[in-house]
Design a protein that fits this description.
335 residues, alpha/beta, globular, 5-stranded mixed sheet
């Protein structure tokens, strides 16, 4: 016997974008009420002025649903058309059950649903999976969500992380398109640097009595990340451009993971982007939202008229693992 498979390939694109930004805006001055630092030091080191923390009524699943509903509306796609839901996150508080099936059910979706964990690169990883499903004919529409609630997994006295990380969610609907809207993905990992960004201690325990935490908190060797990201990711950016057959001069926008404004600026310089390319700087107002940062930054560019739907953009994301991924995309309409 012969096992049947779809034989006709199609193009894939992001058909709609939606986000959820928590209501609570947290200034550097508020962070410094606990952290031994200053607004000037934080802005100089990271470029961050404010970030958003989810309130008690804004759960990771709730933020995901909010962003997803807007993405579906922007795409003009009904929930029943979605064949798979992928949630990229590192901060769902339960290993089991995953967040995606709960998000799917709330949206009226009974299709396959699962979480992936690739740190801050999670959204771009999930986007590659979704595009591959659509191109192969395995699914017609895939919902991709990047969401984090990092404020609940931080040590507010840690000068390496407390002022950086924040909360939010972004979602896109990936579906068939007459032309390619998501280029081939340049991705990879370097597990030899797994120690650079961690959640410690492990879920098996190991907390000392004086740490004051009953759950893991994020820790990061910021200097190591800064030495790695702007240089290694420039090579990945050019690989993604080459795979898509696009030059830097063809780009309208550059939307990297919003890790740190200095990293973004150095990376853009190393890629040798022309002045005509708009660069996402949502980290200034939103902090580092890990797997949510790329869709949130895309939304900010659309909202601020720094980019428009249909523009060609380069996405690059990198983080814990160390993991990284990048692709050239067509920016979708905003819900």
């Amino acid at each position: 016997m012969t096992i049947q498979q779809p034989t006709e390939l199609t193009h894939a694109a992001m058909l709609g974008l939606g986000v959820h930004r928590p209501e609570r805006v947290v200034t550097n001055d508020e962070i410094c009420e606990v952290l031994d630092s200053t607004d000037e030091w934080i802005q100089t080191r990271s470029g961050i002025r404010t970030r958003r923390f989810a309130g008690d009524d804004e759960t990771l699943i709730g933020m995901s649903i909010s962003a997803a509903e807007k993405a579906l509306a922007a795409a003009g796609v009904e929930a029943q058309q979605v064949g798979c839901v992928i949630v990229a996150t590192s901060t769902h508080p339960e290993h089991t059950p995953a967040s995606a099936p709960q998000v799917a059910t709330a949206l009226g979706i009974t299709a396959a649903a699962f979480d992936i964990s690739a740190g801050c690169a999670g959204f771009c990883h999930a986007l590659n999976l979704a595009a591959s499903m659509v191109r192969s004919g395995a699914e017609s529409h895939v919902l991709v969500i990047g969401v984090e609630q990092l404020s609940r997994f931080m040590d507010p006295t840690d000068r390496g992380t407390a002022f950086i990380f924040a909360d939010g969610a972004g979602a896109v609907v990936v579906g068939p398109s007459e032309t390619a809207g998501i280029g081939p993905t340049a991705w990879g990992s370097d597990g030899s640097q797994a120690h650079v960004i961690t959640q410690t201690p492990s879920c098996l325990g190991g907390h000392s009595a004086d740490e004051g935490f009953d759950h893991p908190v994020v820790q990061m060797e910021g200097t190591a990340v800064f030495r790695w990201a702007p240089f290694a990711m420039a090579k990945v950016a050019h690989e993604a451009l080459d795979l898509a057959g696009v030059s830097v001069d063809d780009l309208d926008a550059f939307i990297p993971h919003q890790a740190n404004l200095r990293i973004t600026q150095t990376l853009a310089k190393n890629i040798q982007l022309p002045d005509s390319v708009a660069i996402a700087t949502d980290v200034v107002d939103s902090g580092n939202t890990s797997a949510a940062s790329v869709p949130l930054a895309m939304e900010a560019m659309l909202r601020n008229d720094e980019a428009t739907a249909g523009d060609t953009a380069l996405l690059i994301a990198f983080g814990a693992g160390l993991s990284y991924a990048g692709q050239v995309v067509t920016i979708p309409p905003l819900g």
